[in-house]
Specification:
The protein has 757 residues and is of the alpha+beta class. Among the domains are: 60-133 and 175-302 and 312-340 and 352-382, no CATH class; 457-495, no CATH class; 515-672, Ribonuclease iii, N-terminal Endonuclease Domain, Chain A (Orthogonal Bundle); 685-754, 2-Layer Sandwich (Double Stranded RNA Binding Domain), CATH 3.30.160.20. Strands 5-6-3-4-8-9 form a six-stranded antiparallel β-sheet. The protein has a five-stranded antiparallel β-sheet with strand order 15-14-13-12-16. Helix 6 runs antiparallel to helix 7.
Length: 757
């Protein structure tokens, strides 16, 4: 086996990323059971079993302690850009990710799309955070000047001392630490603001930042970028003056020649600092993002009539500087969890409507900090979680190797995220705890991987993840790679390049069926027309040749695969796995196939002992067979052997074309169009009733079937206990499945009429 069997890290990251989500693809029952047999300690039971105390791996590249990290001096930097549809009209700026080491070849340039947001991460270079950069950026800072003088004194003294002088080494170390300290304080503040959005949480975060951390934790820097360069000026000067008593004199930025001071709650502050800042209104207990000024003040009549303005009268405060212009502000960005969601472009999130604030009511928390930077950092948690998955998938890819011999499923467990991504449990780099206040301790398991915590994972989740890996191999490297991965799991399967199939060749096929008409309908010319005859032959037909049952079995599997592949490539990851499952359900079912067969007129070509009777019954039914075939309703009640025709013809073309699935799809698509789309797909009543009960926390519906062989009808009673009342309805059909669908539909209508659904 060569390297072509490898799976991409992005595909593997999708596996780890979606394993713990609420929406998942329905796995094949046979494959799922086979995979569960390979999982140690698995026992069959009515309920799914759990594998307890399973580790959750965390990438080593993002772990360190801040003391060690700050003294490194050299850092590997990656540019992260975001493009796509955002819940804001403000485009985000780029972010520079600085880590302790090279993250590997996968990150030279990598892109991933989640929920309509295109994230591109690209390696830039190694940077050195040193004294000279501090000198260039912070020359006007009073704290810098004092430090510079101390450094010069140390340098003069060093001329009389050894080069290893502790004084000189200490002073050098301090300058190497400066930028890391500023950057850490910046990201701690801005992320605490966006995620916590609480005064006490931000204050505690700033306090915690001053505490030296020597224990292992989540350590990396996220730096705002301006025109392709790190915005060191913004990092330095946007640090909070509210929570840091040492910075009370920092009231205007270094670029201001003449300070234009305005009165704030904490004293005078330059207009340049207030223009783009984060302010806190104590009476409201809310943070706001300011974006500029209005040529109005607190006494202006227009301001007093404006409901969006926060006046001093509202708070019972007497302003001392009522002539100050008003600030234009809006609420902070809501941190989106964009891993599996699709957002509408241009739709502003609630709470970001513009309001007007007197500066004297505001406490400046961060200034200056642009709206673009706030927008970018609101995507950091989801974005970094995805990068963590990519880093882990790179390690898993190495572990799987290009030549898979035997893969132990137990080694996979630490890579599985058995829980959905939770923003409250995401650890802010720079803090030693998450929003829930949990302190995280990292330990080193036996396989040399760092683990964040231990969780319990369902056995089914592990089996689903292995199935997802098979899909990743199939999607990224083809069928042969997927086959080799399946073999590495210990499953005894063989991949055949040809499918042996003996048949009796019928030379005069035109005397049995209308070959030309059928080939025109399908847009495919058969090399072996006996396959087409077999595909149309029902077991009741009096002939020495084979019936369509074997081709139907084959075509069922082929159609399932190619239709699933079609929807996956067309819509994923723009829609959820649950929606993809619904699209497949609506397109791969007997009702859909039967309707498509009658609409195309295939029933007129079927070789059946009662062909004439079937044709007459359909023509006299009064039903219209035009329109879309997808869903459950168009073909409900039609004989299942009509659906068998679609599957057997697909199997015949698959064999005749030498297993070319694209040829099968081209022919069968003509019969099945128009296909289901996210806008046209509808849930079956059975699925909708189940989801309604889950949403309303009702007991699951019950179905009681009875069969009347005298008239060939099955009756199903569907019942649900909702809001203390038992509702039930009856459905009748030629089989239990049809009767159950009709019963569920009637029951849903009754529950909706009673306002309990």
């Amino acid at each position: 086996m060569d390297g072509s069997a490898s799976v991409s890290s992005s595909a593997a990251a999708d596996v780890a990323d979606t394993a713990g989500g609420e929406d998942s693809f329905e796995s094949g029952e046979d494959t799922g059971n086979a995979l569960r047999q390979l999982i140690p300690n698995f026992t069959h039971s009515a309920e799914d079993t759990y594998q307890h105390r399973q580790p959750v791996y965390f990438p080593e590249e993002l772990l360190d302690n801040w003391v060690s990290f700050s003294r490194r001096g050299l850092y590997h930097c990656y540019n992260i850009s975001l493009r796509g549809c955002f819940n804001t009209t403000t485009p985000p700026t780029d972010i520079i990710l600085a880590v302790k080491c090279d993250m590997g070849p996968e990150f030279l340039r990598n892109s991933f799309n989640s929920g309509g947001v295109e994230v591109t991460i690209q390696y830039i270079r190694i940077i050195h955070l040193n004294q000279e950069q501090v000198n260039m950026e912070f020359i006007t800072s009073p704290s810098f000047l004092i430090s510079r003088i101390l450094f010069l004194v140390s340098f003069i003294n060093a001329s009389f001392l050894s080069l290893r002088s502790p004084v000189l080494m200490m002073r050098r170390t301090r300058f190497l630490l400066l930028q890391v300290i500023f950057a850490r304080r910046f990201q701690t503040t801005i992320l605490s603001l966006l995620i916590g959005n609480g005064h006490s949480e931000v204050r505690d975060a700033i306090k915690y930042f001053h505490e030296p951390q020597v224990s292992l934790g989540v350590v990396y820097l996220l730096l705002p970028s301006v025109y392709g360069k790190i915005d060191w000026c913004g990092i330095k000067f946007s640090t909070s003056s509210v929570y840091d008593a040492t910075d009370k004199g920092m009231r205007h930025c270094h670029s201001c020649k003449d300070a234009d001071l305005l009165q704030t709650m904490d004293g005078p502050c330059c207009r340049c600092m207030l223009r783009n800042s984060v302010v806190y209104i104590p009476r409201d207990r809310k943070f706001y993002n300011t974006t500029g000024f209005l040529d109005l003040n607190a006494n202006d009549p227009l301001h007093l009539r404006d409901r969006s303005a926060d006046s001093s009268k509202r708070y019972g405060v007497c302003l001392t500087s009522e002539s100050n212009p008003l600030l234009v502000a809006s609420g902070l960005f809501t941190v989106p969890k964009f891993l599996h969601k699709c957002y509408e472009k241009g739709k502003e999130p609630s709470g970001r409507n513009a309001i007007k604030l007197p500066p004297e009511l505001c406490r400046v928390v961060m200034a200056p900090v642009s709206t673009n930077t706030l927008c970018s950092f609101s995507y950091v948690p989801s974005m970094m979680f995805r990068i963590q998955c990519l880093l882990l998938s790179s390690k898993l890819k190495i572990q799987l190797g290009p030549r898979m011999q035997q893969f132990n499923i137990t080694a996979l467990k630490g890579y599985i995220h058995g829980e959905e991504f939770n923003l409250n449990k995401w650890i802010i780099p720079g803090l030693g705890y998450d929003r829930c206040g949990d302190t995280k301790s990292f330990f080193l398991p036996t396989n040399n991987m760092y683990s964040l915590k231990a969780i319990s994972i369902k056995t089914k989740t592990i089996a689903d993840t292995v199935e997802a890996l098979i899909g990743a191999y199939l999607s990224a490297s083809g069928e042969q790679a997927a086959f080799h991965f399946i073999k590495s799991l210990g499953m005894d399967v063989e991949l055949h390049s040809e499918m042996p199939y003996e048949r009796k060749i019928i030379t005069k096929s035109e005397e049995i069926i209308d070959v030309r008409s059928l080939e025109t309908m399908l847009g495919y010319v058969f090399n072996d027309r006996s396959l087409l005859i077999e595909a149309l032959t029902h077991s009741s037909y009096n002939t020495a040749g084979p019936c369509y049952e074997r081709l139907e079995f084959l075509g069922d599997a082929v159609l399932d695969h190619i239709i699933t592949d079609y929807f996956y490539k067309l819509y994923y990851p723009g829609c959820t796995p649950a929606l993809l499952t619904n699209l497949r359900k609506a397109s791969v079912n007997n009702c859909c196939y039967a309707h498509a067969a009658v609409k195309a007129g295939l029933h007129k070509h079927m070789l059946h002992s009662s062909s004439k009777q079937m044709i007459d019954d359909l023509e006299n039914s009064g039903r219209s067979f035009s329109g879309p075939s997808h869903g459950w309703e168009p073909g409900i009640g039609l004989p299942e052997n009509l659906a068998d025709l679609i599957e057997s013809i697909a199997g015949a073309i698959y064999l005749d074309s030498k297993h070319k699935k694209e040829v099968v799809w081209r022919a069968m698509r003509r019969l099945l169009e128009p296909l289901a789309t996210p806008k046209t797909v509808e849930l079956s009543p059975v699925s909708e009733l189940k989801e309604t009960c889950e949403r309303k926390k009702y007991p699951y519906p019950s179905y009681s079937p009875t069969r009347d062989d005298g008239v060939g009808v099955t009756r199903v009673v569907a019942g649900v206990k909702a809001a203390g009342t038992v509702y039930y309805e009856i459905g009748e059909g030629r089989n239990q499945k049809v009767a159950q669908l009709l019963a569920a539909k009637a029951l849903l209508q009754k529950m909706k009429a009673a306002s309990v659904a």
